[in-house]
Amino acid sequence: LDFLEREWRIVERWDGAEEMAVKLGVSPTIAQILHNRGIVELEQAKNFLDPKLNGLTEPEDMPDLVRAARRIAQAIRDKEPIVVYGDYDVDGITGTAIVWHVVSKAGGIITNYVPHRIEEGYGLNVLAIKKLAQEGAKLLVTVDCGIRDHAALVAAREVGLPVIVTDHHEPDADLPDAFAVVHPSRGAEVGKPVEVNPCGAAVAFKLAWAVAREISGGKRVDDGFRELLVELTALVALATIADIVPLLGENRTLAKFGLERLGTTKLPGLQALIKSAGIKGGKLDSYHVGFVLGPRLNAAGRMGHANEALELLIVSDPERAKTLADYLEKQNKARQKLEERITNEAVELAEYQHQSAEQVPILVLAKEGWHAGVIGIVASKLVDRFHKPVVMIALHPGKGQGSARSIEGYDINQGLTACSEYLIGYGGHAMAAGLRLEVGKIIPFMQALQEHAGRYLSKGAVVPPIQIDVMPRAEELDSNFIWQLKKLGPFGHCNPRPLFATGRAEVLGEPKIVGTGGKHLTFSVRWDGKIFRTIAYNQAEMRDLLMDYRQCQLAFEPILDEWAGSGLIQLRIKAIRRAE
Ligand SMILES: [Mn+2]
């Protein structure tokens, strides 16, 4: 069992926690968690607990952004057809919708273009550029793509189509030749480096804000635009969480306010999506975006074309919104089925590789009949399961299309670069990348990549320890504490949900197996003289060990027991070990 093998690492107590807690008016445990996240100064801590939407950096801080906004405003006034060209994932379609909403409200002529994930692939392509120019586009704005698409930008220049590139992906040595290049890395050029890399939709949001300013004729945007921009933070939140950028700094601010907005959104498409996913209003957090809404928005692009998902984000007719949401629901179900089959096949293949070569540092799996649209998700699941980087390749006659997912401590993009002689194309970043290759090159590619990973991936990095923030006192855990804890969110990448550990706890009575399929475990414990109910998802196998241990230590997240209804705290168990 995985949980038993993992080491527990409990962060050392910080001496300053008590003092900070008094200054902030929170529990010392909260101050300790802030410290664990690198926040030890009062101002910093205050901003973290209470971020402000009006604290966002100004659009002027990004080179070319005002130039881009002016060009768009001009196109709006001159009725030049504008096309937004976005990526097909949540980040791309939400960013595209953001630009669309603002330009439409300003009375511009605007259409969207999203490439087909499998037929066209990621990024700007020459064919699409030519087609759009032929159809009369006079200005192209990219979202979440374009920063390395030099060939397509040359083609755009040749057909006389000016392009504004907005992107957040790593640029290569040269910035592309375009009318304007809006990229967070360029802040450094004007002495305003961004503190955390934003998602593509957040870059698009800054552009939309700057366009609204241009149209409003001053720094203060008109009320109508202000209201729209606040509404659009809901889309930025979806993208920030779904694209797994660090939930810190400005990203966290946008995600926090956007999530609140998402619960009361006036956009008919988002309303329909939330309803069809069965989420009750006002209860949205990063979990819902990452595991409920995000997959539905991605499903269309994975299984077919992302156009329906994008349309959902801009639709104004509630009837049409419902039709689109139903369609996404269906596509998502189909995606889940496919994913389950591919996961089973991949685990079988992986287990074979794992056992026959215990030391392989990276799994490279290839099979015919795998769907290129879902292998990325399956690769992520396998990373969690095997704690090693995974490359999944869907084989089509002669060619393979792959998706790679990595772990902390191994830059998969660098790995692919080192093995690029075997690839037709590749791209991505440290944790995730895509690739294409000829079937005949799979074996040498696999050997080269495993050799590279063997050299650069330290063995100790393979199974990460369970990181525990703090061991609170049992009596601290009440509804007020839960409320304070909530202020540390939204949780996600680089801002994990705090994890706690009990001291010695005694299991009371017999643990019960619950849930469909008997996967979960629930039991009561006595800890520090207090009794808690617990729920341990997917840990039914622990039942016998618990009966045997009786005295144990639990890693947990405290949650409000909604069934009990009286502010009782339940422990959501993440790991269990025998008490020493
Ligand atoms: Mn992105």
Q: Based on DSSP secondary structure assignment, what is the total number of beta strands?
A: 18
Average of per-residue pLDDT values:
93
Number of helices, where a helix is a run of at least 4 consecutive DSSP H or I residues: 20
Give the distinct bound molecules.
Answer: manganese (II) ion
Radius of gyration (CA) equals 25 Å
Distance between the termini: 19 Å
Structural category is alpha/beta
**What fraction, in percent, of the residue positions are helical?**
40-55%
In what range is the share of β-strand residues? 15-25%
Low-confidence stretches: none
Could you say which overall geometry the principal axes of the C-alpha atoms support?
A: globular
Biggest sheet statistics: 5 strands, parallel
Strand arrangement, major sheet: 3-2-4-5-6
Give a description of the structure.
- This protein has about 575 residues and is of the alpha/beta class.
- Helix content is about 45%, strand content about 20%.
- The chain has 20 helices and 18 strands.
- Strands 3-2-4-5-6 form a 5-stranded parallel beta sheet, with helices on both faces.
- Helix 12 crosses helix 15 (about 320-355) and helix 14 crosses helix 15 (about 320-355).
- The mean pLDDT is about 95.
- Manganese (II) ion binds near residues 144, 199 and 200.
